[in-house]
Amino acid sequence: MGPLLSRARQIADLDTDPLLRLRLLSESLPSIIFRRLDHIWVYEHGYRSPSGAELKTLLGKRSDFGQVISGLLTEAVDQGTFRAMPPRLATLQFLNLHNHTYQWVRTDGQWDAAFLSREYCATLFRGSGAPDHALPKLEKQAEAFKHDHPELPLDPEAGWNPPPAT
Length: 166
Known about the structure:
Elements: H1 2-12, H2 18-35, H3 37-46, H4 52-78, H5 87-99, H6 101-104, H7 113-126, H8 134-148
C-alpha cells in the first residue's frame, strides 16, 4: 500500500483536470498488480490477518487511498464532468473496476496496464454506452417486469417458477 498511496497522492496533487488524474491513478493500480502480482495475491487474501497497530496502519492506508480517489471523483462531479452520486459509491465503483484484476490477469498476456486503464476508465467515465434517454425507460421496464412476473424473483435463493413452455 505504501508505494501505491504515495503515487496516488502525487497524482492527486498534479495541477490538472480531475479526469486526467483519475486516468493516471487508474493506470497506477494495474501497474503495481503486474509488477507485484504475488504480493497482491497475499495482500488481497490476508490484509485483515494482522492485528493491533499493524492492522490499524494498513486499514488507515486503505482508507487514505480511498479518500484520494473520492476526492478526485468529487472534483469531477463539482466541475460537472460526472453526474452527482454518493462519493463512497463512486469510489467503490472505481475500485471494483480495478481490484479484482489480480485474480485473472496474465503478466505475459495480451493486455498491459495502460490498456486495462483505458478500458476501465472508458467504462467508468462513459458507462457502457447506453444513451441517457434509455435509462429511465429501462428502469420502468425493470419495475414492470418484476411486478408482472412475481414467479421469477431476482433473489437467487428464492424459488424460480418459469411459466410452462408453450
